[in-house]
Specification:
The protein is elongated and about 80 Å long. The chain has a 33-stranded parallel β-sheet that branches. The protein starts with a helix and ends in a 17-residue tail after the last strand. With 351 residues, the chain is mainly β. It contains two helices and 33 strands.
Length: 351
């Protein structure tokens, strides 16, 4: 019996390489764990289907294009899989690439776009480098799991990133707007940012829910704009925690940082206040502020409804610097390197 090239490649667990212009449905049907599907430059109209234990390689993003049919996601990773060197598109109400359950995807040199989302992760793991994620809704929609993305660009018309649970690490990445909700929206889970640029995000650069946490270093957020239902805060937290170091929040339409109930630690952050000033803390929020620079419109720091902040070696180039709602128990603790007098102190008694 003489085996065809496709049957021989499948038997050996080798590389399956359709010729340019040929449909890839037959090659996809014969893929087995350990196989590699090598796609040439060109456009292919097909969904990659369920991927486990296989490699999908194209000639490069923008050179090899795979377009899923209407009503289908571009690919579904349910085991270990590597996808690289191609553009993958999905249509209405679908995502370009989904990783679910025990799926573990390694992605490189990809352009992913889908109307619902470019990349969807629920309980799986993703390691991605040099990917472009774009969608009419979410660039990355993460229900759970662990995701690490570097050297990439993310855009979504609702949010560039929507994290509902799990952990996300972004490094050397750009999240571009405008988005209707926020460039990065964190309902719960933890986001780690390193050398991330967020530009023209819409009403909020980063929005954090009560169970969310964001830790960032060398983060630049610029151009949050005041819109209907949104104040234009560069960072807005409703009960979650935010820790930023050596970062920049500029051209913020509302506050550079607005914090309600949560905790904030800012170290070496340049803050350019908008219509609501640099920092606004309400509803018992807590902040530790050290070595920051506040410019733009004042006040520099608003403390209301029992909120408290510790201040060390900050520079305030706004007027007024402090606005503290003393009657509610709000307090600013002035520590070393500050030139402001602590408000809410009782006036000395006259003899």
């Amino acid at each position: 019996m003489v085996l065809s090239p496709l049957a021989l490649a499948t038997f050996l667990g080798a590389t399956i390489a359709p010729q340019p212009g040929q449909p890839i449905s037959d090659a996809l049907a014969h893929l087995r764990p350990g196989d590699t599907l090598q796609l040439p430059a060109g456009t292919f109209h097909a969904a990659l289907g369920r991927l486990t234990g296989v490699n999908i390689r194209g000639a490069g993003a923008g050179l090899t294009e795979v377009i899923a049919p209407e009503g289908a996601d571009g690919a579904l990773v349910v085991g270990n899989a590597e996808v690289s060197g191609l553009t993958l598109r999905a249509g209405a109400a679908h995502c370009a690439l989904k990783v679910i359950g025990g799926g573990h995807a390694r992605l490189r040199d990809l352009a992913l776009s889908g109307e619902a989302c470019a990349l969807f992760v629920d309980g799986g793991a993703v390691e991605a480098e040099q990917v472009d994620l774009r969608s009419a809704m979410y660039g990355l929609l993460q229900h759970d799991g662990e995701v690490a993305i570097s050297g990439s660009t993310i855009q979504g018309d609702i949010a560039g990133v929507g994290l509902l649970r799990g952990s996300l690490t972004l490094s050397r990445a750009a999240v571009v707007g405008p988005s209707r909700d926020a460039a990065i929206s964190v309902s719960a889970g933890e986001v780690s940012l390193d050398a991330v640029v967020i530009s023209h995000p819409g009403p909020s650069g980063i929005a954090i829910g009560a169970k969310g946490r964001v830790v960032g270093r060398s983060v630049s957020i610029a151009g949050a704009t005041e819109q209907e239902g949104g104040l234009g805060d560069c960072v807005q937290s409703l009960g979650g925690d935010v820790h930023l170091a050596w970062s920049e929040l500029s051209r913020c339409g509302g506050a550079a940082l607005e914090l309600s109930r949560g905790r904030a630690t800012l170290d070496g952050v340049d803050l350019q206040g908008g219509g609501a000033g640099c920092l606004a803390l309400v509803d018992g929020a807590r902040a530790d502020l050290q070595g920051n620079l506040c410019t733009g419109r004042g006040p520099g720091l608003v403390l209301a409804s029992g909120s408290k902040a510790q201040l060390r070696m900050n520079r305030w180039k706004v007027d007024p610097v402090l606005w503290v709602e003393c009657a509610t128990g709000a307090r600013a603790e002035i520590l070393y390197g500050e030139h402001e007098r602590a408000p809410c102190q009782a006036a000395p008694k006259r003899e």
